[in-house]
Design brief:
InterPro entries: Peptidase_A8
Strand content: 5-15%
Largest sheet: 4 strands, antiparallel
Membrane topology: Multi-pass membrane protein
Strand order of the largest sheet: 1-2-3-4
Keywords: Aspartyl protease, Cell membrane, Hydrolase, Membrane, Protease, Transmembrane, Transmembrane helix
Function: This protein specifically catalyzes the removal of signal peptides from prolipoproteins.
Structural class: alpha+beta
Protein name: Lipoprotein signal peptidase
Shape: globular
Length: 165
């Protein structure tokens, strides 16, 4: 492998490392601010009857599932994080740019919520769109959902176009 090829490869992977870190910082900083300035249950209206910051301690997973089962959830989350990282590294050259972004987002979100579980014993949730749905979530959840949507788009739309050609 030539030096030029290796430097391009390292430079290219730095994009995803940088994205991972930026997303993780946004998630962790927002959780830190909410956890250090609000009491559990406090709500700050941002857009009346639509968007609030509401401090919730989630001791389960998405949508309040597995509440109080932090040990099982943490073990499953660590396994998922390991599998995502393994798949990403093993298939880095094979997957598209969109999929790389998607897996980086999913990995960042999973790590962000895992940090909370390990160091707090719960995940800090705060994004509350009462005008749309009743679930309260955080930026890590947003990154995971956007990542999943990007993978679905890649496989349903872009892969279909490749098969048609």
């Amino acid at each position: 492998m030539s030096k030029m090829y290796r430097s391009i490869e390292i430079g290219e992977s730095m994009i995803y490392i940088f994205l991972f870190l930026i997303l993780l910082i946004i998630d962790q900083y927002s959780k830190f601010i909410v956890h250090s300035t609000l009491y559990v249950g406090d709500t700050i209206p941002i857009i009346d009857n639509f968007f609030n910051l509401t401090y919730v301690q989630n001791r389960g997973v998405a949508f309040g599932l597995f509440q109080g089962k932090i040990d099982i959830v943490s073990i499953l989350a660590l396994i998922a994080i390991g599998l995502i990282l393994f798949y990403f590294c093993k298939n880095f050259k094979k997957i598209s740019f969109l999929e790389r972004i998607a897996y980086t987002m999913i990995f960042s979100g999973a790590v962000g919520n895992m940090i909370d579980r390990l160091f707090r014993g719960f995940v800090v949730d705060m994004l509350d769109f009462r005008g749309i749905w009743s679930f309260i979530f955080n930026f890590a959840d947003v990154w995971i959902n956007i990542g999943v949507i990007l993978i679905i788009i890649e496989h349903l739309i872009f892969n279909r176009k490749k098969r048609v050609k």
